[in-house]
Amino acid sequence: YYDKAIRLNSSSYRAWRLWALANASTVEMNEFIDVKNPVRLVVCAISGLFRSIELGSEEPNVSVLQDILRLLKLWNKYGETDPAIGQALKTGTNSIPPQTWLEVIPQLIARIKPPNDLVCQLLKGIGRYNPQPLLFPLTVASSTLNQRSQAAQKIMQYLQELHPVMVEEARLVARELIRVAVLW
Fold first, then answer.
1. What does each C-alpha distance from 133 to 29, 104, 126, 166 come to in angstroms?
2. CA-CA distance, 170 to 174, in Å (whole number)?
3. What pTM was estimated for this model as a whole?
4. Are the CB atoms for 110 and 75 separated by under 8 Å?
5. 103: exposed, middle or buried (C-beta count within 10 Å: 0-12, 13-18, 19+)?
């Protein structure tokens, strides 16, 4: 029924959300039942959530945060398991304006990997137009010695090219905060 609803009204936020949630619920239940093609369900859930987020962002009094978090959960669990899922994620991230992701920047930074990762590309897209919410979390993430740190440093270098004064000021503030914390 949800599939029919999105075909009949392809611009309905509610229809897309319910369709995506039905697919996501089935994917989550996959641990308990044997689904013949879980990749197809994951792709449907991801595509539906992206469309739901896109349509919900345009409607007044609608919060898409829950849909974004559910999408990130699927992305984290299935993002690198199949090329079709990767393609759905890439297509979806290109369809949503960067400001949509501002509420979940900490969750995105927690997921960054080497620089060719889709999350890194998404963070660069956000930073192109909204660098302020990224600077301090990325500065903190780049201060450790691990894979996430290397990716955070690459994103900071990218932001340095676009917004050199702002990035340098953020680094200065971070250094001073660390210095004050050490003195305390």
1. 36, 10, 9, 11
2. 6
3. 0.85
4. no
5. middle
